Amino acid sequence: MSFGSAGAERQALEATYEDRAEVLRAQARREGAVCRPVFVPVAQDVPCGFSRLGERSSRVGDRSGRDEAAQIVAWDAVAFLPPEVAVRPGDRLRVRRLGQTLCFEAVGMPARYETHQEVLVREAHSA
């Protein structure tokens, strides 16, 4: 399918974005003699699309080897964002989706195109 121009293609892509994201970046904050990373917003209310790729699962077992041990499930996804939003590896994305807030960490460099960028993200416990 040809849109005739990158602007028309971008407009068509962004019409499918149903979510909003906040991009957060770690900055060192000194607390006495200790420096701690604190995530601060670098972009807010960014329209985005979000696609789940799949699950990673690891079982945490006890010494008896029983199977009913706690299960930890994390999942990977791709966030589709406008190309001008700067996302770096290690940045956190706080995504508002269907009334929920999901937290992810950017993994690797985004794939950038004229019309959008694709950011591989992995579930993070907090942002």
Task: Report on this structure.
The structure is a single chain. This protein is mainly β and 127 residues long. It has one domain (6-123): Thrombin, subunit H, CATH 2.40.10.270. It is 7% helix and 57% strand. The protein is built from 1 helix and 7 strands. The protein has a 6-stranded antiparallel beta barrel with strand order 1-2-3-7-5-4. It is elongated.
Please describe the structure with a list of short key phrases separated by commas or semicolons.
mainly beta; Thrombin, subunit H; elongated; 6-stranded antiparallel β-barrel
What is the gist of this entry?
The chain contains one helix and seven strands. With 127 residues, it is mainly beta.
Helix content: under 10%
Give the CATH architecture: Beta Barrel
How is the largest sheet built, in terms of strand order? 1-2-3-7-5-4
Q: Give the overall form.
A: elongated
Largest pleated sheet: 6 strands, antiparallel, barrel
Q: What is the gyration radius calculated from CA atoms? A: 18 Å
Topology:
Elements: H1 6-14, E1 19-31, E2 34-59, E3 71-81, E4 92-97, E5 100-106, E6 111-112, E7 117-123
Antiparallel strand pairs: 1-2, 1-4, 2-3, 3-7, 4-5, 5-7, 6-7
